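Table 4 source record.
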Amino acid sequence: MSKGKMIVIGVIALVVIGVILILTLGSKGPVGGTAAPKLTIWGVDGANSFGGAIEAYNKLHNNASSISYVKIDPANYESELIKALAAQRGPDIFYVSNRSLAKLANLIVPVGQEVMNVNNLNQLYPSVVAEDFSINGTVYALPLYIDTLALVYNLDMFDRTLIVSPPSTWQEFADDSNKLRVLNEKTQIQIAGAAIGGSEKSVDYATDILNMIMIQNGTKMWNQDLSGASFAGGKNSSGSQAFNFYLSFSNPGDSNYTWNEAQQDSLNAFAGGKAAMAFAYSNDVADIKRVSPYLRFSIAPVPQISASTTAAYPNYWGLAVSKQSQYSAGAWDFINFVAAQDSGSYSYLGVTGRPPALRSIIASNLNDPDLGVFVKQSLIARSWYTPDYDKIKEIFTSAISAVVSGQKDSAQALKEAEDGVTALR
C-alpha cells in the first residue's frame, strides 16, 4: 500500500473516531465545557428565574445555545415530569427535590466522577448536599439553593409577656409557649403559644418538624443497610421520646398543651395573630408579610435539644439531567454554571431571593437581615433517606392524627408508621 493511501485511510479513521466520540459524549458524557445547541428546563420556580443566568451563560458561549425554561405547577410537578418522560417528551434538565432522588434516580444521567464527586460536593456545599444528591459516591444533581425550617415569632406578644429573646432550646420553647398561650374561661385556645403538635391538617410542615426533632434527638431513621426504618424503637427510644414531645403540645392533659386540630393552619394562624410562634421556610416569610403587612415578627433558628447535636431541617431543589436528553454533556455544563459557579448562582438567587447553596456565597451572607438565619442553618442541615416523601408525609400525618384523636397510643401509631415507611423501600 502506498504512503498516500495510508495517509488517506488514517485521516478517514480519525474522522470516524471523532464522530463516534461527539455522538457518545453528546448523549451520555460528563460536563464537557461545550454549550448544547438547544436545552429545555422544567422547574417549579417563576418563569423569569433563569433569565439572567441564561443570558450570562450565553455570553460566555457566544450565544451558541438556545435554552428555554418551563414552569410546572409544584402540586403536580413530579407526576407531570414522570408522565412526560414516559411519553418521550420530557425536558433535558429538570428540578429534583432533595427528598426525591431515590424516586427519580433511574431517570437521571449522573455526572462523571472525574468531573464532580462527593469530595467536590463537600468543598462546594454544606454536607447535606452529599447526603441528598449522591448515591454510593455518584453525583446525580446539584443544588440551586438550600432552605431550612426556621422559627418565626410575634415580637409584640413576646414583649407583652416579657420574653426578651426567642428560645434556643426545646425546653425554653415549651416554657415560652406556656407563657404566651391564652385560654378563655372554657379553657379553649384563643391564642396558641406555638403552632405545633398537630398533623399536616393544621400544622404546616408537621412531618418536617417532627422528623427534625427526631434527628436532633439522635434517632437513626433507618437501620445500617437501609433495609428497614428504625425510628420507632422501644418505649423510651429517642424516636419515641421525640414523637411524644411533639404530641405533648396537642394533648389537653399535658402542661405543654397549646394546639389542637380545630385551629386554622399554622402559618395563617401566625399571620392572623392567633399563634405566637410557628415554623416556616424562607419563602413563607414573604407570604406572611403580604397577608399581614403590619405584623411585627422576627425569625430565629429552630430550637435545639443540646449544643452537641444541632440540626436544622432542609427543603430545597436542585438540577439534574434527563437520560432522554440528546445533549447531556451540554446540559451538565449549564447546571455547573448556574449551580456551582458564583456568577451563575448569583443570577438565579438575585431573581428568586432564595438562600444560597454555595459555601462561597454563604460566607458573605451569614448576617443578611432577611436570609441570615436560613443561611447559617444550611451548615447544620441534616436529611434522611426518603424513598417517597409524599407517602411518608401521609404516613406521619396518619400517625399523629391517630394519637391526637385518641384512636391509638403513641407507641402503636409510631410502630405502624415505621412499618409503613419500611414498606416503601
